[in-house]
Amino acid sequence: MAGSEADFNLKVVLVSFKQCLNEKEEVLLDHYITSWKGLVRFLNNLGTIFSFISKDVVSKLHIMEHLRSSPQCEHYTSLQSMVAYEMGNGLVDLDRRSRHPDSGCRTMLRLHRALHWLQLFLEGLRTSPEDARTSTLCVDSYNTSLAAYHPWIVRQAVTVAFCTLPSRKAFLEAMNVGSPEEAVEMLGEALPFIKQVYDVSQRLYTEHSLLNLP
Question: Taking all residues of the chain, what is their mean pLDDT, rounded to a whole number?
Answer without folding.
Answer: 92
